[in-house]
Write a structure and sequence with these properties.
By secondary structure, the protein is an alpha/beta fold. It contains five helices and eight strands; from the N terminus they run E-H-H-E-E-E-H-E-H-E-E-E-H. It is 34% helix and 18% strand.
C-alpha cells in the first residue's frame, strides 16, 4: 500500500494544533504506556537513538535517563500521530519534524489520515510516496510535482 499524507502549505490557520510541544507532552503524559509498544520502541531507537526501559523511563545516550515527555519533538509528534486519535482532525505543524521523521509519518499515514501543514519544503522520498496537496487539490507522486505545487503556493502568497 502506498502511504498518502495530506499536505497543506500554509503559515497559519484555525485547524492547526497550537503549540505542539505543550500538547505532545500533555497527550503523552497521560499515555506513557504507548512507549512500550513495538512501534514506539522502534522510532525512539531510530529517531532519538534511545532505548525504552519502561513505560516511564527512556535511556538517552545524550541526556541519560529521561521520561517520555523529554523525547525529541519529532518523536513525540509521530507518537501522537499514531496513538492519539482525538487530534486527527487537526493539522500537525511540519516545522516540528526533521527529515528523519518522514519515513515514520508515511508509515503512520498508511493506517491513519495524517494532515500536515508546511511552511517550508520538507524532504520526502520520491519513490513509493503519494502526497495529497490540498492547496492544488491533487495527488503528487514525484518530487518535481511536489516542488511545483510548493512554488505555485509561494507565488500566490505575494
Amino acid at each position: 500500500m502506498i502511504a498518502v499524507l495530506r499536505v497543506n502549505f500554509m503559515y497559519d490557520g484555525d485547524k492547526l494544533l497550537p503549540n505542539n510541544a505543550v500538547l505532545y507532552n500533555q497527550y503523552l503524559k497521560d499515555r506513557l504506556d504507548i512507549l512500550e509498544h513495538d512501534f514506539s520502541r522502534r522510532i525512539i531507537a531510530e529517531i532519538d537513538k534511545s532505548t525504552v526501559l519502561s513505560s516511564r523511563k527512556v535511556q538517552s545516550p545524550f541526556l541519560g535517563e529521561i521520561s517520555g515527555t523529554e523525547l525529541s519533538g519529532g518523536t513525540k509528534g509521530v507518537l501522537v500521530m499514531r496513538f492519539v486519535t482525538k487530534v486527527h482532525n487537526y493539522y500537525f505543524r511540519g516545522e516540528g519534524f526533521g527529515s528523519n521523521c518522514v519515513p515514520y509519518m508515511l508509515e503512520v499515514a498508511e493506517t491513519v489520515d495524517i494532515k500536515l501543514s508546511l511552511s517550508h519544503l520538507m524532504e520526502f522520498p520520491v519513490d513509493g510516496v503519494a502526497l495529497y496537496i490540498e492547496n492544488s487539490d491533487r495527488l503528487v507522486t514525484t518530487y518535481n510535482e511536489y516542488f511545483a505545487d510548493y512554488v505555485k503556493y509561494c507565488a500566490s502568497r505575494k
